[in-house]
Amino acid sequence: MGKIAIISGPSGSGKTTVCNLLEKDPRIKKSISVTTRPPRNGEKHGEDYYFVSPAEFEQMIRNKELVEYAMYCGYYYGTLIHPLEDALKKDLIYMLEIDVQGALQIKKKFPQAISIFLLPPEKKTLLQRLKQRNTNKEQDMLLRLEVADKELTYKDMYDYCVVNDDLEVTIDTIRKIVNVN
Ligand code: 5GP
């Protein structure tokens, strides 16, 4: 029987880098979400996300294809139900990189899911990382920082909080939490 591991954290906390490194382990599989956000430079459909139109997303909601979904900074994001069910049948750790709204929905449906909140070492690091991601428009960056403040207030609802200071230590800590050593 597989396990679900939820990874949340404010934009710029390094979630995607951490999840991509964790996925190098064949026992860990990352869920590919569906979103209406436009792709960033280098992002690929079916690899980073399934990029769809708002109408397509709303159709997926009606068809009950999503196990959770949320609106984040004006775009829809959601987790497909079928790949999650398939991963649970296998002995895999299915990693969901989702926001706090999605994490709450998953915890309700799958109370045994392990939830991890990734924290940046300091707020100024968030700003630096968001700035480095130079595809973010100023407006978008400010909105993400505002949302980050709100998201941080939810961190105590998670099973674990991990400060992403040293990437190697972070990976090691999460591997221990999900029990793949
Ligand atoms: P980004 O636009 O930076 O890729 O993602 C924005 C936020 O949406 C991040 O907090 C990310 O974890 C979250 N997110 C990505 N996929 C999903 C999903 O399927 N469901 C939910 N609820 N949030 C998601």
Structure overview:
It is a single chain. The protein has 7 helices and 9 strands. By secondary structure, the protein is of the alpha/beta class. Strands 2-7-1-8-9 form a 5-stranded parallel sheet, with helices on both faces. Strand 5 and strand 6 (75-80) form a beta hairpin. 30% of the residues are buried. The model has no long low-confidence stretch (mean pLDDT 91). Bound molecules: guanosine-5'-monophosphate. Guanosine-5'-monophosphate binds next to strand 5, strand 6 and helix 4.
Set out the fold topology:
Blueprint: E1 3-8, H1 15-22, E2 28-30, E3 34-35, E4 50-51, H2 54-62, E5 66-72, E6 75-80, H3 81-89, E7 93-97, H4 100-109, E8 114-119, H5 123-132, H6 138-152, E9 160-163, H7 167-177
Parallel strand pairs: 1-7, 1-8, 2-7, 3-4, 8-9
Antiparallel strand pairs: 3-6, 5-6
The structure holds guanosine-5'-monophosphate.
Guanosine-5'-monophosphate is lined by residues 11, 15, 33, 37, 68, 70, 72, 77-79, 97-99, 101-102.
Can you give keywords for this protein?
181 residues; 7 helices; alpha/beta; binds guanosine-5'-monophosphate; Rossmann fold; five-stranded parallel beta sheet; 40% helix
CATH fold assignment: Rossmann fold
**Overall form:** globular
Give me the side-by-side strand order of the main sheet: 2-7-1-8-9
> How far is it from the N-terminal to the C-terminal residue, by CA?
18 Å
Oligomerization? single chain
Number of separate structural domains: 1
C-alpha Rg (nearest Å): 16 Å
State the share of residues found in helices, binned by percent: 25-40%
Order of helices and strands: EHEEEHEEHEHEHHEH
Write down how many β-strands occur, each being a DSSP E stretch of 2 or more residues.
9
Indicate the low-confidence ranges by residue numbers.
none
Bound molecules: guanosine-5'-monophosphate
- What is the name of the CATH architecture? 3-Layer(aba) Sandwich
Q: What is the CATH C-level name?
A: Alpha Beta
CATH superfamily: P-loop containing nucleotide triphosphate hydrolases
Per DSSP, the total helix count is 7
Structural class, by secondary structure, is alpha/beta
- What can be said about the biggest beta sheet? 5 strands, parallel
Output mean pLDDT: 91
Proportion of strand residues: 15-25%
